[in-house]
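Help needed: design a sequence for this.
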């Protein structure tokens, strides 16, 4: 987890993880493709919650800083992979 996540971002992340776990326990996926489907469903639940919160508050639920930091980390990781 990111040390700079807001409370709302943490809650949405926890919602995605918990929803995915509960769906997985119910559906008992047997392979990678089924697990991907379950993960997507859990993420969609949190995504829908985020969209509803943003619609009600008129504000982004995620911070621009975290997106920018994630892009920088992705770039650094890409540079490390090129060296190895």
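Sure. Designed sequence:
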């Amino acid at each position: 987890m990111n040390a700079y996540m807001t409370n709302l971002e943490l809650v949405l992340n926890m919602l995605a993880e918990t929803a995915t776990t509960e769906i997985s326990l119910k559906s008992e996926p047997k392979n990678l493709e089924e697990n991907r489907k379950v993960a997507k469903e859990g993420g969609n639940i949190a995504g829908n919650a985020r969209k509803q919160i943003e619609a009600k508050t008129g504000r982004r639920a995620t911070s621009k800083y975290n997106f920018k930091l994630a892009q920088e980390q992705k770039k650094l990781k890409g540079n490390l992979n090129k060296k190895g």
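Helices lie at 7-27, 32-57, 64-83.
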